[in-house]
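re: that chain from earlier
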Amino acid sequence: MADALLFLPLVEVSRRYPGRCELFQWLATMETSAWLRQHDLAHLRADGYGVWLEDGRCLRFLVHVDPGPVGDAAVNVRGGRRGLVGC
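^ sequence. v structure.
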C-alpha cells in the first residue's frame, strides 16, 4: 500500500525535477521489516523505508499506512513541508 501512496508520487516528483531531487532508495514492506530487525528495531511496524535527496539534503524516513478506506490517506510531516518540491 505504501508503494501506491508514497513511492509512485515521489518517483513522479523526481521525474519532474531532474537533478534537483530524487528518491535515492526505497525498501518495500518485507525489506523494511528485515532492515528493522537488523537494527534491533523489530518492535516497530513500517510499510516502507526511503531516502529522499533534495538540494544537497538527505531525508531518511519510515512509512506506516493505517488501514482504512481507500483514498482516506493522510500525510504526517514532522517539521513542516519546507523544502519538499511539489508540496
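The longest strand covers residues 21-27.
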